[in-house]
């Protein structure tokens, strides 16, 4: 809150107008449409629309594909968060030991942030391509027949790697910032108290990184749930046999390809609910950390 | 570093070098692939050393596109991506900074309501409300246009929050001094607030440019006219064809070109990029 | 140049809390008035009301003959120096000084002339092209003053302008501000919580407490005849001793000790004696006997801390005096300040 303000009444509305207009037209209105749509069902020929209450929602939870998508999303999110955060922490700890070379390593590690998820997907799809890819070629030597277009497990591994590859850079930067904010004197005190590097990590460094870790966990879940659309679409397109069909991809497929508007809208509404919960968690974290 | 342990230092370097190599590996392969002829892939294994066709492949992609799949030249698509990224990033900055100014420096009825309306946009990624948003844009006749590509993505709660926080750290006395110096609201905004926020604006621009350039689903849906294709979305169309008729050299040349601008931005503006990323927290 | 008149001025916040109330001050043209009081006494609020940065909910403020209650800060013909200086960090010193003039449409030649003149007065000419962050605390302070001077306003308003400086610089700048104000003859209101600053700068000072005026007067007048126990304790360093005493038909009793008093009546009072008004005595029957706790050496003098009849007492003695465990002290009748034990108002 500012102590002193301007007295104008009309000007603030003019300043807010563009943002409010766009928010209303492209965010609030479509979100309202989605909610309304989720209570409707069209007949088979798209001629008649009737109000069906919560039927679309109930149908979703009786739909094996939807329940499967929930599970796939969970596995995908946990795997990407664990893999990308684990590697990022490892790199951050290593960079934290560096003095002169820290900047160079950082540059060499963060650039994948700038690569579009779809591009990341294509890059790894190329590496894992069953006919010409280098990794299936190498896996063949140990007797593994890689084929992500036929084997569900392979497909999941592919999208997890592609999505994590891009996310490591983000997590890395936040872990580095988190490590730098730990006062050097704490670690020195622990060293004088006789704690070696490993003990110091588990008793001092890691506990003090908890807020960063928690924040990143939320961000990573949001990332895997929504921003990895391009990864999925460029690689497996949800297959084989729905094994990589995450929630946000299913909304798109059912709405645009399947033209099942009521069900797609109900899925949208559920996703919005998930985002709202995650955003509130994240927002509370930011507000707590940044206090003026 | 608390104490010097040669073994740990060695281990740290080893981990980082391995990390850098693994992170760079997919791009290295793409780069190598983009320097060969299409025939180089028919042997069954990806070549690991550069070929001689680099200039040829890139010129082909930039100038004429992929003839077999009817994909347009990349030059045009990259220009479209640039236009979309610039409209999105500059648009977001402009409407966010004015919104934050209104919210922080004025008191008016429904101020909190306005604030929450903007906050809601943070909660609703475009992927989640894709179907109804598509319908709105179609109804407004904005399919296949730069406006359709960018305007629906311009509202930004994140940037508004960032500027709000920046403004809250500016001491009250700055406004008081300016008022005594005879500056009205817009003069204060232009002469004091914008110059004081310029590094935040630059940092945000870096993040938003990447965000805009990398848009995928949205351009894929609303462009059916190849004059408005963007490069990231366009590659998908190419790669789909490539699976049937492998022209990996061309696809990978396109991939390299599509990721080059944002990657260069990150590398050359690393300081601003890190600042932007850690400040927006999203 | 102008007079500033505050008539029955008050400010009540929307929640009902009163920041200041019932303020009546008439500031002469060219006068240097200091508002002094502890934090939260309303002194800054009052200054900001004169500046136009806080709304005035009661009374009227006049600058010259004009009622300015509804006038924008920029149109009040005042200039303000802030505690944190509030220099525009992205502008050079020259631009900082010129900004207010430019906004008023002053011709460029005139701006240059005034900026150069102010820079010469304040000796900041070598820094004119630097940014504020490249300046030391004292230099920033001068720039903040320069920004006020170039405007050639009817009044200067100072909001604790020296409290961000170190002790030594504070004393230097204090002298400079006084000199500058004398030279320009501009009416000034100066807010501080530091009574020493208030004493040394003011033509008149206003002691504020809890949003009300305790006393207005020239520094020495306030020092010599504080109007209340609050002012007595606030003005003067070391602070005045305040003792619980009983007035008993021309005698003041403090426990078993007693002093002659020239006030009639009887009952509980607060007795104030400044440490420097206490001196040693030998052989006087009704001397005050003080037990010594500890001594602070100040060089020329020493502060002796101890107790009189169980109440804390401080006295200032010359540094060459020899001390025992007990001191016999006396004070002139004229140096005794009597205050009502309940209201704190002066009664002699």
Automatic annotation (TrEMBL), chain B:
Record-level GO BP terms: transmembrane transport
Alphabetized CDD domains for the sequence: TM_PBP2
Pfam families xref list: BPD_transp_1
Record domain ABC transmembrane type-1: where: 78-269
GO cellular component term, pick one: plasma membrane
Family of this protein: Belongs to the binding-protein-dependent transport system permease family.
Primary role: Part of the ABC transporter complex UgpBAEC involved in sn-glycerol-3-phosphate (G3P) import. Probably responsible for the translocation of the substrate across the membrane.
Record's protein name: sn-glycerol-3-phosphate transport system permease protein UgpE
Gene: ugpE
UniProtKB/TrEMBL annotation, chain C:
Keyword Cytoplasm: no
Annotated Gene3D superfamilies: 2.40.50.100, Nucleic acid-binding proteins, P-loop containing nucleotide triphosphate hydrolases
GO biological process: carbohydrate transport; glycerol-3-phosphate transmembrane transport; glycerophosphodiester transmembrane transport
GO molecular function terms noted in the UniProt entry: ABC-type transporter activity; ATP binding; ATP hydrolysis activity
Annotated SMART domains: AAA
Domain of life: Bacteria
Pfam families: ABC_tran, CysA_C_terminal
Transport recorded as keyword: yes
Matching InterPro entries: AAA+_ATPase, ABC_transporter-like_ATP-bd, ABC_transporter-like_CS, ABC_transpr_MalK-like, ABC_transpr_MalK/UgpC-like, CysA_C, Mo/tungstate-bd_C_term_dom, NA-bd_OB-fold
Domain ABC transporter: 4-235
GO cellular component: ATP-binding cassette (ABC) transporter complex, substrate-binding subunit-containing
Keywords on record: ATP-binding, Cell inner membrane, Cell membrane, Membrane, Nucleotide-binding, Sugar transport, Translocase, Transport
Family, as annotated: Belongs to the ABC transporter superfamily.
PANTHER family xrefs: MALTODEXTRIN IMPORT ATP-BINDING PROTEIN MSMX, SN-GLYCEROL-3-PHOSPHATE IMPORT ATP-BINDING PROTEIN UGPC
Protein name: sn-glycerol-3-phosphate import ATP-binding protein UgpC
Organism: Fertoeibacter niger
Origin organism lineage: Bacteria, Pseudomonadati, Pseudomonadota, Alphaproteobacteria, Rhodobacterales
